[in-house]
Amino acid sequence: MQQKLYTLLELLLTRLKRREYHLDRRIPIVTLFSIVVRRVIWLLRGLLKTTFLQFRPKAIFVAPGVKFRNSGRCRFGNGVTLETGVVLDGLSEFGINLGDSVTVGAYSLIRSSTAMHLGEGMTIGRNSSCDAFSFFGAGGRITIGENVIMGQHVSFHAETHNHSDTDVPIRSQGVTRKPIVVEDDCWVGANVTFLGGAHVSRGSIVGAGAVVNKQYPAFSVIAGVPATVIRSRLPTPKGIDSLDEIGKQKT
Ligand SMILES: CC(C)(COP(=O)(O)OP(=O)(O)OC[C@H]1O[C@@H](n2cnc3c(N)ncnc32)[C@H](O)[C@@H]1OP(=O)(O)O)[C@@H](O)C(=O)NCCC(=O)NCCS
Question: Which domain holds residue 14?
Answer without folding.
Answer: 1-55
